[in-house]
Each structure stands twice: as C-alpha cells, then as structure tokens.
Amino acid sequence: MTETAGASSEPAEDISLTRKKRTAGIMLALLVVLMACVFSTLDNAVTLRHASGTDIGQWPRLLLAFSGLAAGFVFDIRKRKYMGLIMYCVMMMSVLSIVVLNLGAPFLIGLVVFYLSSGFFVVFFTAGFMELSRHMRLPSLWAGMGRAMNNVSAALIASGSVALLSTGNSLAAIVIALVLFVAVSVAMAVYTARMNAVMEPKEPPASQKSDEERREAFIAKYGLTEREWDVFSQMISSDSSAQEIADCLFLSKRTVERHISALYEKTGAKSRITMYLLYRND
Known about the structure:
Elements (H helix, E strand, L loop, with lengths): L1 H50 L8 H16 L7 H20 L4 H27 L5 H5 L1 H23 L2 H30 L11 H12 L3 H12 L4 H8 L3 H15 L4 H9 L2
C-alpha cells in the first residue's frame, strides 16, 4: 500500500514541478515585455531630446559597455541569488527617471540612467532565460527567447511611446510608468518564487542507498573480493587501461587483467558500460 502511494506521488510531484517551470517561464517573458516598455519609453525620451538639438556625443556608449560588464559581476554574487532584486532596483531607478524627466528634470539624468540600466537589462534577460532553459524541455528554444521578446516588445510599443511623449502630456506618461512599475513588481515576485522552487535541490528518497551501502550490497551480490572491488571501481570511474589501473593500485598488469576477467565472469557483463549500469541500477 505504501509502495503504491509512493509510486503515485512521484508523477504528482513531476506535474507540480512542470507547472512551476511553466509559470516561471511565463513570468520571465512578461517581465521582459514590461521592462522593455519602460526602457523603450526612456530611450524615446532621450532620443526626442537628442533630435531636438541636444548633442550627447559618443561617451554614453562607454556607460553602456560599463553597465554590461558591471551587471555580469554583480548578478553573479552568491550564484545569481540577488539578480532579481538588483534588476528590480535598476527598474525602479528607470521609472523614477521617466517621472522626473516629465517633471522637468535635466536631460542628463535620463541619459545616464538609460545607458546604465540598459546594460543591466540585457544581461538580466539573457542570463535569466539561459538559466531557465536548463530546466525546460526545449532548452534551445528558451535560451534565446529573451532577445526575441525584447526586440518584439520594443518594436510594438515604439510608435505609441513616441506619440505619447510627443504630446507633452506629462501626467499620462507618469501614470503609465507607475502602472508598469506595479506590474513589474507583481511579475518579479511571482517569477522569483517560482524560479526558487524550480532551482531548489530535490531531497533524495529515504530509501536511496548511500555509496557505502551500495558498495557492500554489490560486493555481496556478486561475491567480489576487496581487490576485485578496487579494480572494479577504477574501471567504472575512468577509461584507464589495465596498465594504468595496475600503476594506480600498485599491482602488476597481469594481476589486474586476472581481476578484470574474474569481474566479467562474476557479473556477466560484456563491457565497462554494462558493469557501470549494473552498479548504478543495482
């Protein structure tokens, strides 16, 4: 009865994990879309100022390069544990820039924030989808989705964003920026929770044997001697030749070959791979 319950609980756990992966993917895609809306709006605000005659030169490109490098280092702190939180703070700074620009703040603020935040955004969606792809059924599809989502989103909202900024309706731009920020906050919270669940290491089943228990059981099952076990462990853990195994165990090559013949005979295996599978599936 217990075995049946355990067997039926495994598929349920797999289904639950699959749902968490799917939710994490959807939330990450939604995050990229929402953030692309904010950054595209900030980009258009900078572009419109530039088109009106404000000369910005080439130095902002250095900010973009610096922010990309900085994001790579900062996001990797504690194995990307704080990547979502850091990106959320960058997002908050970008939204505040849109607000203060529409309230008449100096153009330079928006320029600096845009180029600094853009590098973080690119690294965020690239690293986020690359990490997620490792847990998905079609990793090659998910790995490149960040760039695709960003480009499509930016293309779709570009004209609307420019039209809104061109009207000079600062209140509408501020309200939309704040609504996007709230949406990002919700999506980020859900994505972080689901991604943590996906990456959470699974606890091994209670019935799983330890390495020592597996070793003792295998030796007893096939009647191996301690020296035969030493040779066996070398065979399944490397592709070393008989001579190399002999050198490692301080035996003669002929002795090792004799042990190998005995191992094949006792286990009934025809190759090292078969031996390895016998041991792992025992």
